[in-house]
């Protein structure tokens, strides 16, 4: 099916359509008792014909509507059971609303794939306030809504009152003043729990020896520190840093991005190669350089250079 045909087909499906669902009673009656209706693309589509015969027409249409948009309908229905009962009319309203905010049809597979709950959100009480938050609190112009939402679709499933505003307030208290950076580069921080995600990461940095002001300075320089797992990232990397690299906290304070590099694929191999070559390099030089640049650094700083 061509892109144009798919678009037209999607539009024909995701619209208000007051078609009766087949109840167990009338589903067993002869076809002559059912309201006559012309065959459409829906009936001829392989997704429709392969669907279980006991599914109602509306469920089949919803499944096909999701698949045509490039969304895994099985995953979406599993993660958001409310889709089973929502109407096509409601789905169409969500799609139309997002399109009115500048979201493109080609964005839907990723957005809905990550957050299928959006498909059953309330436009007035849930989705609308998010766009108002983007505009009023983050100063995002309307023509940039798409950029922010594509960066972090979870914004659309976050409560403005209970999540977004408290997170923004906390981050601003820490020293995050650049609203543009928060909107376009680090919106994931806004959907992170202050109590269960942001504060514990800061406390961990303090627990390994940094002062509160030093820890704050580090996350301001490298906001990604708020997104790393304490158990799977911080602890093993810090353990290797202290025990194998004999590193000093001053090194991490100067280069907090250390935690953003893979321990097995970057940190260990580079460190071992540097030690084997008898070279000690600053963390930034050792980890940020390309492979060729790293080899050049080893040659230029080796014992025989």
From TrEMBL:
Biased composition range(s): Polar residues: 16-34
Highest taxon in the source lineage: Eukaryota
GO BP terms, alphabetized: DNA-templated transcription termination
MF terms in GO: nucleic acid binding
Keyword Lipoprotein: no
Pfam families per the UniProt record, alphabetical: mTERF (PF02536)
Keywords, in A-Z order: Transcription, Transcription regulation, Transcription termination, Transit peptide
Stretches for region Disordered: 16-39
Gene3D superfamilies: Transcription termination factor 3, mitochondrial
Family: Belongs to the mTERF family.
Listed name of the protein: Transcription termination factor MTEF1, chloroplastic-like
């Amino acid at each position: 099916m061509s892109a144009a045909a798919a678009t037209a087909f999607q539009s024909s499906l995701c619209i208000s359509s007051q078609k009766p669902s087949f109840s167990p009673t009338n589903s067993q009656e002869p076809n002559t008792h059912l309201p006559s209706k012309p065959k459409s693309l829906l009936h001829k589509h392989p997704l429709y014909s392969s669907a279980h015969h006991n599914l109602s027409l509306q469920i089949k249409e919803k499944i096909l509507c999701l698949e045509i948009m490039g969304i895994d309908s099985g995953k979406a229905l599993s993660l958001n059971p409310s889709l089973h009962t929502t109407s096509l009319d409601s789905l169409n309203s969500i799609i139309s609303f997002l399109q009115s905010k500048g979201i493109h049809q080609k964005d839907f597979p990723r957005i809905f794939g990550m957050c299928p709950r959006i498909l059953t959100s309330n436009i007035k009480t849930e989705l609308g306030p998010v766009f108002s938050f983007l505009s009023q609190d983050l100063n995002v112009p309307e023509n940039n809504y798409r950029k922010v939402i594509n960066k972090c679709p979870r914004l659309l499933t976050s409560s403005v009152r209970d999540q977004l505003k408290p997170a923004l307030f906390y981050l601003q208290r820490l020293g995050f003043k650049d609203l543009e950076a928060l909107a376009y580069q680090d919106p994931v921080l806004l959907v992170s729990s202050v109590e269960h995600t942001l504060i514990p990461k800061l406390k961990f940095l303090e627990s390994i020896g940094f002062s509160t002001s030093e820890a704050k300075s580090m996350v301001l320089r490298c906001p990604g520190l708020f997104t790393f797992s304490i158990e799977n990232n911080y602890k093993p990397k810090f353990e290797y840093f202290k025990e194998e690299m004999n590193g000093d906290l001053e090194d991490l304070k100067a280069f907090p991005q250390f935690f953003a590099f893979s321990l097995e694929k970057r940190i260990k191999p580079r460190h071992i190669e540097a030690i084997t070559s008898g070279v000690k390099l600053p963390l930034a030089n050792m980890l940020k350089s390309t492979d060729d640049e790293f080899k050049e650094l080893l040659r230029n700083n080796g014992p025989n250079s």
